[in-house]
Amino acid sequence: MTDECLSCSGEVNYLGCDLTEAELTSLRKFSASFEIKKKKTFILEGDPQDYYYQIFSGVAGTYNYFPDGKRIITEILFAGDFIGPQPGDRYPFTAESLQTVFLCRFEKKKMDQLIARSPNLKDKINMFQQNAINKARTHLLTISHKAPLERVASFLLFICGNIEGSGQNFLIPMGRQEIGDYLGLSSETVSRNMTDLSAQGIIAMETPSLVSICDPAQLYQLVYGDQAMAGQEFAGFQPKLSG
């Protein structure tokens, strides 16, 4: 699994892409692969930041708790996503598998030493960090400026664009409470808006988790508002659906 995690894919950008064989050889010396079963924690907030991680397959999430005990999911991680350098020397979040996850783990100290002498690896890490920042910015705008129905529509487009499905269907890797924790909504509000989207014929739900987007253009219209923008975005809509 470790060699696969450090290899390149036509669809997923892994850490090993574009590195020299010497750099890959060094990287393999302090990396290891793990299977994390569904709903298992692999990072605890406040623990020493001893490792970096990259998701090879499956879906994971990071989260924090408010003082009142309410949880907020801050990021959803898919194949290729990288958990890299964080401010300070301790993890600022908890990370948990939302599905069974295969991941690669890299020793931080040795990785930092390799980054210092490898421009290629430094560029890769910077790219992963920038991608994470961009994703966080988009998510913040979604939950701070969009109505509940628009948030749920945005979430469905986000999941469909990042997870493989079968035919026209895809499985949402989270329950309604977890979706609410990610979108800043109650589980009841999530369920109500999913039902509304289904009643409008925009999506279909065979089960609470198995979803088909029946009218992607209308879903984009809900998210982006302006019809011209919706059409422009729809033209580039290529979810990872197989069939």
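Next protein, fold it too.
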Amino acid sequence: MEESEKSCVLYGESSLDELICLLDAGRHRSILLVTGRSSYETSGASLLLAPALEGRQVTQVSDFETNPKKDDILRILDEINGIDFSAIIAVGGGSVMDVGKLIKCFNQSNNQIDDVLYSASDAAPSQVALFALPTTAGSGSEATEFAVLYDRGVKYSVAHPKLLPDAAWVLPSLLTTVPQHIAAAAAMDAFCQGVESYWSIHSTNESKKVAKEAIELAWNNMVAAVVNREPAALKAMGQASHMAGRAINITKTTAPHAISYALTTHFGVLHGHAVALMLPEMFKFNSEVTRSDLLDARGVDYVKSTMGELCVM
């Protein structure tokens, strides 16, 4: 088990016993279960979670789009109004994690959404517990305090320390049934997040250490994980994704991510692939940085040294 600020991450199916302990310790009898439309069953998560959910009142939410829209969240909040749940369990990819976080953020008052998105008001998440089980190795959302929300084609980011899940489980068995094209996009997302965090102007010694581990794990294991579904490689990609999430939780993402959202929104390019398409030109730009276009206060030589380090990882 690893701890990061107020959250912890547990690896392996046997660690799910800890979920039962946490649910019992928190007296969580009513659970809001946020899942993908089909991944909850096809990934095997439903069978793995059955013992933890037995005897509890469970309300499942799964009817929302990839890259959740404001209308999705408003509808879901209306549907669950009146349900007295004390914990959210999000099981799925990055969009599922986002929906779980957004419900926690706005379930006390859905009219707060516009204030947070358009008026820069601070979010005020509820006190419900949030647990995360990713079924893709890419977004790292289980390790961040951010959630993405779209409205009329515009991407917004909602952030608050309380949106960092209380605990997360990285289970290699949940990654075996992900369609190959989705697994490939997720792997590239994890790799790109690691690279972007490493070169970020907000990087720290800690974030660079974690980002380096994410980059190396992703680079050395993505083909074996995506193409061959090798168990050891799947485990490594799960770890890479989580490490990349921890890194960007410190630094945030950079230009490749920012530019990529237009490709996803307007042309349907999977997020991880869209980011990867943006990475090479930004890598070249950063490698050729000059004083006239420098944003990093640590100087040109520092940036060039950082880019050199990325080249030999």
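About the second fold: The first strand starts at residue 2 and ends at 4.
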